[in-house]
Amino acid sequence: MEENTHNLPETVSPVIPQEAPKEPKKIDAKGKWLIIGGVFLVIVVIISYFMLQKPKQQQQPVAMIGDHPVYLEDLQKVASEQYLPTAIDEAALKTSLDILAERYVLDQEAKKLHITVSDEEVREKLAQGGEQGEKIPESIKTSMRYELLRDKVTKQEIASRQAYTIDFYIASYAEEQEGGFSEEEKVLFAKQRAEGAQALPEIEGRLKVGESPVTIARSIYNKYPSLQPILSVNGYILRSTTDESILAEPKIYEEEPANASQPFFHDIYMMHQNEIKRVIASDGSGGYVIEVKGVTQGTAKTYEDWLNEKKNS
């Protein structure tokens, strides 16, 4: 995970108001979502810096999410999942509040939909990404749990396709003619198009008999050397991908209207469950095979639309 290198602002001595502390902002009785303002957060962060020495139950909440008080300690804990301690600043804390709000929604919806994420699922997913052993920080486990929960909710609530893709992409004939490529590169393009045209029907046939997409892709990788730099599974270049988890499971494609005009997304959005489709680009830019494993006919087109709807309902 890329580290955020923002620095904490210098600590200043706060002027603490004499009147009683204000009630934290919260969701009203109807569930209307309210997020605290930036100015309020800055004040609370400065004051709460000196309150952290107190037990949590004696601290003043900085916000309420549902019926749950949110303390500075909670925000810092979430921020530590993504930032070094010295990089946790105001922006990081505000982002953490958004994350906590999202997790609250996911937890509530998981209860309604009877969705759970087991410890074994978390361990397996982390292991696929190279994280193993008993010393994995709890913050990483928590982050992965909510990532899995989001995927499960998306599969039930968001209009989407869950699909495997095996593909390769190169310069089109037109791009090649425009210049800028050496003769050696043009020879490689020709070979990649020829071997790709052989590989795609083989991929399609092997998917139809139930072979694993990753197993097929690795076999194609070894069989057709010219495709090795460009062969992808689920949109990730095979030879440079070390996280097996992003290859082992179908990728979720939300039905975003903005993508519908693109041939690749149009094909996915029009496909049915268990359908397999092979496409070779007529412009010479490559090709792909898609296997749709699941279809969700949700009312929301994207996860963000769904999340905002839940926050404001």
Q: What's the total number of strands? A: 8
What is the CATH topology classification name of the domain at 160-296? Answer: Chitinase A, domain 3
Residues in β-strands, percent: 5-15%
C-alpha geometry: elongated
Kindly state the mean pLDDT as a whole number?
A: 82
Termini separation? 34 Å
**Radius of gyration, CA atoms, in whole angstroms:** 25 Å
How much helix, percentage-wise, in residues? 40-55%
* CATH architecture call of the domain at 160-296: Roll
Which secondary-structure class do the elements indicate? alpha+beta
CATH class category name of the domain at 160-296: Alpha Beta
User: What sequence of helices (H) and strands (E) makes up the elements?
Assistant: HEEHHHHEHHHEEHEHEEH
Largest sheet: 6 strands, antiparallel
Question: What would you note in describing this structure?
Answer:
With 313 residues, the protein is an alpha+beta fold. α2 (72-79) packs across α3 (90-113) and α3 (90-113) packs across α5. It has helices at 38-51, 72-79, 90-113, 119-128, 138-157, 173-177, 183-208, 213-223, 245-248, 263-270, 303-311, and strands at residues 63-65, 68-70, 160-169, 232-233, 236-237, 251-254, 276-280, 286-296. Residues 1-53 have low confidence and may be disordered. The longest helix has 26 residues, at 183-208. The chain contains eleven helices and eight strands. It has a domain at 160-296: Chitinase A, domain 3 (Roll), CATH 3.10.50.40. The strands form two sheets. Strands 3, 4, 5, 6, 7 and 8 form a six-stranded antiparallel β-sheet that branches. It has a two-stranded antiparallel ribbon with strand order 1-2.
